[in-house]
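ok, trying the design again with the full structure, not the truncated one.
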């Protein structure tokens, strides 16, 4: 790149690691570029921040958000922000790919499903170790299965995402 290109980029973005505070326009330009980079990385990395996020997805979301914000404000170099963000997303992609192929590794990085209700009976020890109350179970029954009678629950699970899923008993056949 010629000096003109470097000068133009420095004028727009404040340089890779600005020596002086960024102007408002430079902060806005960095925000736009970092936003597009973050969107690209999340899409390429197949992250699930917006859906069934597990612990591994949530941690990446926090770390990536913190890292990207430093690139916007100029407290970190923009090139270093891009490289570190890409490295984190690549690591996340590799870890989730490995978790898909290895059940044990998946349990380690994504967590385990835990049975909370079986045949209408609350499994209090499992609920306690998961920090889930009877009120939480009843809320999930109403929201997920549209029922309020515990005897209609065949099983309830705390999923790896932290959500509670409900499996209902088949309706009795009427004559």
């Amino acid at each position: 790149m010629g000096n003109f290109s470097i000068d133009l980029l420095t004028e727009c973005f404040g340089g890779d690691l600005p020596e002086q505070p960024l102007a408002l326009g430079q902060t806005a330009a960095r925000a736009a570029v970092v936003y597009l980079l973050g969107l690209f990385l999340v899409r390429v990395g197949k992250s699930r921040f917006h859906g069934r996020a597990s612990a591994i997805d949530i941690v990446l979301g926090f770390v990536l958000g913190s890292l990207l914000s430093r690139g916007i404000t100029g407290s970190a170099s923009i090139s270093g922000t891009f490289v570190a963000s890409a490295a984190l997303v690549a690591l996340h992609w590799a870890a989730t790919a490995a978790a898909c192929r290895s059940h044990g590794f998946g349990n380690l990085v994504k967590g385990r499903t835990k049975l909370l209700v079986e045949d209408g009976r609350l499994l209090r020890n499992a609920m306690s170790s998961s920090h889930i109350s009877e009120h939480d179970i009843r809320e999930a029954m109403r929201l997920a299965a549209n029922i309020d009678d515990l005897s209609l629950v065949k099983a309830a699970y705390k999923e790896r995402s932290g959500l509670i899923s409900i499996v209902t008993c088949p309706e009795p056949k009427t004559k």
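Keeping the full-length input from now on. Residues 11 and 26 are 8 Å apart (CA to CA).
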